Amino acid sequence: MYRKITSLKQILKRCRKLYSIGGYFLHREAFKGCMYDSQTKSKKWRQIEKVYGCYFDSEKHYKELYSKHFKTHYKGKPTKRYLKLMKQINKAERFTASDIENLFLI
97-105 vs 43-56: helix axis angle to the nearest 10? Predict the structure, then answer.
């Protein structure tokens, strides 16, 4: 289902981010009724994602950590990217599997 383009003024509007909807790359105001992904999720799910999101993304973080040319240290110091990944992995390891099961039973 494609949205109708509302006006020529909105088509010519300058912006930094273009959205691809129905084969057109335009400003988001050029399409009527468009929403961000997070706007379609319930408030409860957004709260769960905020608290437990690191647990759900941990597999992605491990994959990045063990990717082929990932540098953990440079000149004897850990890289910022490595420290950020380790912080997110440690944050995810705080939760046990039973915590996640209880979360979905609520």
Answer: 160
- The per-residue pLDDT for 62 is 92
Q: Where are the beta strands (DSSP E) in the chain?
A: 19-21, 24-26, 73-74, 77-78
User: 98 and 54 in one domain?
Assistant: yes
Residue 86 resides in a domain: yes
- As beta bridge partners, residue 26 has 19
Give the Cα separation of 96 and 80 in Å (integer).
27
Asked if 54 contacts 93 with a C-beta cutoff of 8 angstroms, the reply is: no
Phi/psi at 6 (nearest 5 deg)? -80, -45
- How far apart CA 72 and CA 64 sit, in angstroms, is 11
Of 39, 41, 46, 15, the residue nearest 29 (C-alpha): 15
Report the chain (106 residues): mean pLDDT per 10 consecutive residues: 54 77 76 77 87 86 93 96 93 85 77
Same-domain check for residues 60 and 83: yes
Supply the range of the domain harboring residue 17: 8-34
